[in-house]
Structures are given as structure tokens and as C-alpha cells.
Design brief:
Helix content of chain B: 10-25%
Radius of gyration of chain A: 20 Å
Number of helices of chain A: 13
Number of domains of chain A: 1
CATH topology of chain A: Glutaconate Coenzyme A-transferase
Mean pLDDT of chain A: 97
Low-confidence stretches of chain A: none
Shape of chain B: globular
Largest sheet of chain A: 8 strands, mixed
CATH architecture of chain A: 3-Layer(aba) Sandwich
Low-confidence stretches of chain B: none
Number of strands of chain A: 12
CATH superfamily of chain A: Glutaconate Coenzyme A-transferase
Oligomer: heterodimer
Structural class of chain B: alpha/beta
Distance between the termini of chain B: 20 Å
Largest sheet of chain B: 8 strands, mixed
Strand content of chain B: 15-25%
Strand content of chain A: 15-25%
CATH class of chain A: Alpha Beta
Number of helices of chain B: 7
Mean pLDDT of chain B: 95
Structural class of chain A: alpha/beta
């Protein structure tokens, strides 16, 4: 197959499938190993300087924000991110930890643009490579399938393609031009779920976003869960185990871990808290103060939950959950 | 003169009237959510909403603030994931797709990535998100735009989402599926469509109190004008009541 066009973006992460297979053989175990640790140990274990990291789901819904806060607290350098998010991506970029990003969307929907992304790209020269939402999700899927690329019928003919790291070729089976998406092998995926056991088996309720794909595309998987359950719960409904234990490296108990985002059926969004962040993010000073106050000066997630109002606040947020 | 309705309410009502019943629509944040909710209540009760992060067929009883939140799958028929939703659209199941952007050209291409030079942008916008996929896969896309000369321009700073690209045959030549593409543009001034032959944007109807000249003046590329330009009916009392009392009682958007 002849390559007809090449995107001009840099391939931020090599789609090294052999490397992924070898990693899995050497570092993953089919044994049931207890992986339940606190967030400090989980981040220490799973996230290194220079890693390529991905977060699931999407900004204000089932987002692993307690883990993101811990990453800011510990500090990492030269991270690369796959950016399909809001606060998750913004906080690490604002903390100066990110060198480059595969981006599909970074803004606050109804609340408008991201001041952090604007400063980083317009003034500080943050390197970004463009993709569509399906493009990013299918890049995980390719890695999960163990194939080097997937041919797709999106992104074609646009500057989104030109600024990606994809290729265009002619389909040898007769469907015209196709875009080739390189598999995206992630160093560490961070996923927040409803329930996990201490070995890493996971259940989630509601939409699954791209949790299944990114978990299978990653060398390391860090799970935070609203609730830690007995493995008997998993065994009763094995069909609901969407991320099996052997993919997982660390499990953290993180009630209200998605705050100020929501958790389907459990608690709603803390909109005033998100708006307070957006106001702070307008200036560099405000951003620094926000990161200090809600992350760096706190010892852990438990202290954060107290900071935002403790049990009373949690009851208020539970009342905002949309039912079934 | 005090208007009975504001500009956003007009956009929502006009967009709601575009969709046929028993079809499906890919919904983005903002006006499309309200338009779909209004259409479902008044014109297209069996309209199926599709949200990119996995919600399909929600009742749309509650108004979401984002495309990934619980309200997008409240009492829905399906709560799946982004790959399944995008693959469903890729297989031709989704009729309408709502799009927005900072700039649009006469072929319906859209920019939501940067204003200015890509390497040194004046403004970094959000990026494609699902926009490019919606523009690639949906049979008929509907762009909702503020109608201003700096937004309706001959050449975009960046083509985020494909319209008819450079004109007739260009989508197919690029590899996109035949028969898909831009269908309507709904603006604060008018409803526009596309000429079947040239694929160029064409005026269909002006909004209440708006002249053809005003629409032309707000469009920086040559706009095709039909022999007869219709006039859109203003929002009805029933539409405004449903919008204000049932769909967005907290006035998140209107």
C-alpha cells in the first residue's frame, strides 16, 4: 500500500506492539495479587517522569480527579498526555508537567474555552497533535487489538488530519481512500470506576466512555474506585467485569474521586466548584493559588474531602444524582 | 420594541423544526440539546438522541451541561461507549448531526481549532472533539452559527470538520462516504442550505424582521440566492412555553 498523504504532527508515542506484548509478559501476572494501596503509593508505582498518560472518562463525569490531584501533589516532569478532557488535563498542564499532548477536545462545553490550554498553546508553545474523538478512541482500540493501525473513514480531507500523525492510503479492497490511525500504546491509564475488588476487577455503571479500550491499550493501569467490593461480587456477575484484574497495577479507594465532576447514579456535579476553578484559571496567579490550596498543601484525598465540606457536602452532592 | 423571544430561543426553535420524526440526531452541547428536547416534545416524539460518550435514546427530560454526563443517558435505551457510538454512525445509522464552530465557509467546512496561524494561533479553540466524526459520518449535518462577516468567510484558518471540502465530488475523492454532508445552517439571521449541483451555500429563509440584504452583508463569501426567499415563522407560544417551563427552567442556556 502506498502512502498518499502524511499528517505533519509528531507521533508522540511509538506504536510498539512487540514492546507491549513483552511488557505484559514480564510485568503482568494472572495471579490474584492484592493491589489495594493509597493514592500516594499508586501514583508512585504507576507514573514516572516522561510517561505518556491517558485519563478516562470525560472531564466532569466519572473522572479520576483524586488521582490527578495526587499527581500534582507529587510532581512529575516531561509527561505527555492524551487530552480528551477538562480539569484532568488542565491541572497537569497548569502545573507545568506536560511537554506534549495528543488533543481532541479541551474546553468546558457550556462554560467555554480553557484558559490553561489557551495560555499553554498561544504563549508557552505547548506541542499538540490533533485527532477527532473517534480517532483517539480507535487508536486505543487498535492497541487493544494488537494491530499497528486501523483504517478509518473519518478525519479525511481536513486540517485535523494534516495536523495529526496519521497517514492516508487507498483501500486495496475497493473502498476508496482511508485514513490510517496509529495504535496508541499508553504508559499509564488512569480510570475511575464504581466498584473494584482489591485485585483490580472492575464494574462501572452507565456509559463506558472508552474505559475498556484504554485499559487494554496501556502498559500500566491505575484504578480508583468509589467502592471496594469483595471478589464474590465480581464472581456473581462476571459478565459485568469490564476491566479484568490482570490488566491492573494499582487499586485506590476514592469515594467522591470524581469531584467536582459527577459519578453516574451516585452523585451529581459540583458546578460552583468547577466555576471557581474556571475563575481562578483566568490568571497565572489564580491558577497557582488554586493548585496550592486544593492539591499541594493537602496531604491526601481525605483532606480534600474535608476541605470541600465533608459529610454535609457529600450528602448535598448525592442528592443531585440523576436516578434511573 | 421588546421582542417576545431572544436570539438563542429563536435558534433553538428553528433547529427543532428541521428534524424529522423517527430519525436520529447526534447531539452536541448547547443549542442542539435544547433543539432536540423541543423537537421531541412537539414535532418528533420518536427522535433518538445520540451522545458521543455512549448515551442513545434518552428521554431528554433533564438538560445536560455536557455530552458525557448522566443526563445524556437518563432513562435511555442504550448506555454504551464512544467506539460503539462512532461505529454506529460510521455504519449509517445516524441521520442528523449538529455542529458548531467559530468559522464556516461556502462549502460548509467548519473551524473549531484555531483562530489565526496554526503554529502561532491568536486563539486556541477546543479542537475537533467529535465534530470531525459527525461531519464525516452523519447523513445530514446542521451547523448552528452566529451570522457575522468574520465567521462566514471565504477561507477558514483551519478546516476542523469536513463540509463539502472544495466542492462537488471532493468528499468522495477524499475518501468520505457518498451521500453524507452539510444539510442546513441555522443562524440568528437565516436558515441556509446547499445548492445540489455546486454544493455552495444558499439562502433558504430569513428570520422574522431580517432582510436578504442583511444576510448578504453578514456573509463574506458570495451567497447563492434563490428566486424566492421564504421567511421563518417566529417561535410560537407553545414552543416558548415548552422551552422556558419544561426544557430549561433554570435558564442554563436561554
Amino acid at each position: 500500500m502506498e502512502v498518499l498523504e502524511s499528517g505533519r504532527g509528531r507521533l508522540l508515542q511509538t506504536p510498539d506492539l512487540d514492546g507491549l506484548r513483552r511488557w505484559n509478559r514480564e510485568h503482568k501476572s494472572m495471579a490474584l495479587v492484592d493491589k489495594l494501596v493509597d493514592e500516594h503509593e499508586a501514583v508512585r508505582r504507576c507514573i514516572d517522569d516522561g510517561d505518556y498518560i491517558g485519563f478516562e472518562l470525560y472531564g466532569t463525569c466519572r473522572a479520576p480527579l483524586s488521582i490527578v490531584r495526587e499527581i500534582v501533589r507529587q510532581g512529575r516532569r516531561h509527561l505527555r498526555l492524551v487530552g480528551q478532557g477538562l480539569q484532568d488535563v488542565d491541572w497537569l498542564v497548569a502545573a507545568g508537567m506536560v511537554d506534549a499532548m495528543d488533543i481532541t477536545y479541551n474546553a468546558y462545553e457550556v462554560h467555554g474555552l480553557s484558559s490553561v490550554l489557551r495560555r499553554a498553546v498561544e504563549k508557552q508553545g505547548l506541542e499538540v497533535v490533533e485527532w477527532s474523538n473517534a480517532g483517539i478512541a480507535w487508536r486505543f482500540k487498535a492497541a487493544a487489538m494488537g494491530v499497528p493501525f486501523l483504517p478509518i473513514k473519518s478525519m479525511l480531507g481536513t486540517d485535523t488530519f494534516v495536523r495529526s500523525a496519521g497517514k492516508v492510503t487507498e483501500d486495496p479492497f475497493g473502498n476508496g481512500r482511508v485514513m490510517l490511525l496509529p495504535a496508541l500504546v499508553v504508559d499509564c491509564a488512569v480510570i475511575h470506576v464504581h466498584r473494584a475488588d482489591r485485585f483490580g476487577n472492575c464494574q462501572l455503571d452507565g456509559i463506558s466512555g472508552f474505559a475498556l479500550e484504554i485499559a487494554r491499550a496501556s502498559r500500566k493501569v491505575l484504578i480508583s474506585a468509589e467502592e471496594i467490593v469483595d471478589t464474590e461480587t465480581i464472581r456473581q456477575y462476571p459478565e459485568r467485569n469490564v476491566i479484568p484484574y490482570f490488566l491492573v497495577d494499582a487499586v485506590v479507594h476514592a469515594p467522591f474521586g470524581s469531584h467536582p465532576g459527577e459519578m453516574p447514579y451516585l452523585y451529581g456535579r459540583d458546578e460552583p466548584s468547577t466555576l471557581a476553578w474556571l475563575e481562578s484559571a483566568k490568571t497565572l496567579e489564580g491558577t497557582e493559588a488554586f493548585l496550592d490550596q486544593t492539591m499541594r498543601r493537602l496531604p491526601n484525598h481525605a483532606a480534600y474531602l474535608e476541605l470541600i465540606g465533608g459529610a454535609a457536602k457529600q450528602a448535598e452532592l448525592r442528592a443531585l444524582a440523576v436516578g434511573r | 420594541m421588546t421582542e417576545r423571544y431572544n436570539g438563542t430561543e429563536l435558534l433553538i426553535c428553528l433547529s427543532a423544526r428541521v428534524m424529522e420524526d423517527r430519525s436520529s440526531a447526534f447531539i452536541g452541547t448547547g443549542v442542539p440539546m435544547l433543539a432536540a428536547a423541543l423537537a421531541k416534545r412537539l414535532y418528533a416524539p420518536e427522535l433518538v438522541s445520540v451522545f458521543e460518550f455512549g448515551g442513545i435514546g434518552s428521554s431528554l427530560k433533564y438538560l445536560p451541561r455536557g455530552v458525557g454526563e448522566s443526563k445524556t443517558f437518563y432513562r435511555a435505551l442504550v448506555a454504551t461507549g464512544i467506539c460503539d457510538v462512532m461505529e454506529t454512525a460510521a455504519r449509517g445509522f445516524v441521520t442528523y448531526g449538529f455542529l458548531g464552530g467559530a468559522q464556516i465557509d461556502m462549502y460548509g467546512n467548519l473551524n473549531s481549532t484555531v483562530i489565526g496561524d496554526y503554529e502561532h494561533p491568536k486563539v486556541r479553540l477546543p479542537g475537533s472533539g467529535g465534530g470531525n466524526d459527525v461531519g464525516s459520518f452523519c447523513w445530514r449535518t446542521i451547523a448552528i452559527m452566529r451570522h457575522e462577516p468574520q465567521r462566514f468567510i471565504p477561507k477558514l484558518d483551519f478546516v476542523t470538520t469536513p463540509g463539502y471540502l472544495s466542492g462537488p465530488g471532493a468528499r468522495e475523492a477524499a475518501g468520505l462516504f457518498p451521500g453524507s454532508g452539510p444539510y442546513r445552517v441555522v443562524t440568528n439571521l437565516a436558515t441556509l442550505g446547499y445548492d445540489e449541483e455546486s454544493k455552495r451555500m444558499q439562502l433558504i429563509a430569513v428570520n422574522p424582521g431580517v432582510t436578504v440584504e442583511e444576510v448578504v452583508a453578514a456573509t463574506s463569501f458570495p451567497l447563492l440566492l434563490p428566486a424566492k426567499v421564504e421567511e421563518n415563522a417566529p417561535p410560537t407560544d407553545e414552543e416558548l412555553r415548552a422551552l422556558r417551563e419544561e426544557i430549561d427552567p433554570e435558564h442554563l442556556y436561554i
